[in-house]
Amino acid sequence: METVGVWSGGEALVRRLEAALGAEFQFLWGTHPADFARGLCAGLIIAPDATALAGAGVVRPRLALLPGDNVALARKVQAASAVSYGLGRQNTLTLSSLDGGSVSVCLQRELVTLAGATVERQEWVLPFDRATQTPEEFLCLCGALLALGRGLG
């Protein structure tokens, strides 16, 4: 069973991932890069609320999912493969539309999962509740599920 680090200011994301994928992965939650520095994490999910970015260079996962609007973080994380998420057009995973109670999540280029499978470019229309999470938090969860081999549809 592979260990996946979840770098976040709170435990909500790791609890959602444990509920969806806890039988397949061991999740390690932390609030600082030092929590993941021992090299135990094959994957690292960096939430939009992650702080203490200065030490990010000590983390060396095979796959990192990171907020695309943080260029400094992207330069520091030493991952074999990185997947960005965010509202900008340059991100691997973004929203192509946000309408009422649904969003269109767009994978703009192929993604290689932690297990080595390829997810082709595509789009999903998914329910979205602005009252419970931000678009960035939603994209982070979607990206984590895709990177860990779970589909969105």
Strand order of the largest sheet: 2-1-3-4-5
Count the domains. 1
CATH architecture: 3-Layer(aba) Sandwich
Q: What is the global morphology?
A: globular
Query: What structural class do the secondary elements suggest?
Result: alpha/beta
Indicate the proportion of strand residues.
25-35%
Secondary-structure element series: EHEEEHEEEEEEH
Mean pLDDT: 89
Low-confidence stretches: none
Q: How much helical structure, as a percent, in the residues?
A: 10-25%
What name is given to the CATH topology? Rossmann fold
CATH class: Alpha Beta
N-to-C CA distance:
25 Å
DSSP strand tally = 10
Biggest β-sheet description: 5 strands, parallel
Number of helices: 3
Radius of gyration: 14 Å
Précis, in short:
The protein is 19% helix and 32% strand. With 153 residues, it is α/β, with parallel strands linked by helices.
Can you characterise this structure?
The chain is an alpha/beta fold and about 150 residues long. The protein has a single domain, classed as Rossmann fold (3-Layer(aba) Sandwich). Helix content is about 20%, strand content about 30%. It has helices spanning about 10-20, 70-75, 135-145; strands at about 1-5, 25-30, 45, 65, 80-85, 95-100, 100-105, 110, 120, 120-125. The protein has a 5-stranded parallel β-sheet, covered by helices on one side. A 3-stranded antiparallel β-sheet has the order 6-7-10, with helices on one face. Strands 8-9 form a two-stranded antiparallel sheet. β8 (about 110) and β9 (about 120) form a beta hairpin. The longest helix has 13 residues, at about 135-145. The radius of gyration is 14 Å and the shape is globular. The two termini are about 25 Å apart. The mean pLDDT is about 90.
